[in-house]
Amino acid sequence: MDNHYNNNNKLAMRCCLSGVLRKNLFIIGIGLMLFASGCSYLPEVQNLSDTVHVEENRDYIIITPNREWYSMTGLVFYPGGNVDPHSYVEALSRFAVSGLMHQIVIVKMPANLAILNAEKGKWIYDDFSYVKRWVLAGHSLGGVSACRLVHEYPSFFFGLALLAAYPQESSDINWWSQTVLSIRGEHDALVSEDELDSNANFLPPAIKINTLEEFPMNQDSKTVYYTIPGGNHAYFGQYGDQKGDGEATITREKQIKELVNILQLWFDAYNWDE
After folding, report:
1. Which residues form the domain of 254?
2. Residue 217 sits in a domain of what CATH number?
3. Is the Cα dihedral 241, 51, 134, 204 positive or negative?
4. What angle (nearest 5°) sits at the alpha carbon of residue 14, between those of residues 8 and 18?
5. What is the pLDDT of residues 139-198, one digit of tens each?
6. What is the per-residue pLDDT across 11-51, written as a single tens digit (0 to 9) for each?
7. CB-based contacts of 16: which residues, under 8 Å, 6+ apart?
8. How many domains does the chain fold into?
């Protein structure tokens, strides 16, 4: 009896592991191909304001507003695949000092691939215990990994911002009770609008807006889609052009400004600090 029970347990475990591997094979395969290609995007020169303090350790780049009080809702960010995490410091520094001001933490990933440690963000409450609430964000493959983290730990985060990213079926969060903001650039040739549409059923109920003035204040639509006119895939950070991307018809400066504005409207709409 005991041997039969143990054999069944072993078989069930093997089946479970096999299922997990199948679900993650697609994402891991993409990451390994990027790593093998040797394609690495390094940060360009960035203009940092003296209104923020930037420090880092082996796990994080930490952006803190230079003032005595700031919001107790922070933003934790997963960089895009093979993109140096410092590439996002300028854009996120601007958001840090907008509105109520926010603590920002950019997570450093092994080989600059968030998919190799998608759960790293779950330690954010332990490492920054003075921040009461965290919103998760990710760019490109970093956004895919952020979806996986929310899928596994749905109660950890109060919102999810996806920059040129969408969840896979294995990280379906259409049941999630929190809000999602999905942003892409109009000329993004790496993540198309059709791709976002075809994976929309893996996110909570959605609404599309065409201008920032349309930003919804009612919370019936948990997911908000917004396309930055003239933008592309790479202009969410400061790392030059990206292979295969479309050509933007706006400046990087303009796209980052749009990003900061929509993030601030989103934070304001949900009143996380009340």
Report:
1. 2-270
2. 3.40.50.1820
3. negative
4. 145
5. 999 999 999 999 999 999 999 999 999 999 999 999 999 999 999 999 999 999 999 999
6. 333 334 344 444 454 555 554 544 444 457 767 656 677 88
7. none
8. 1
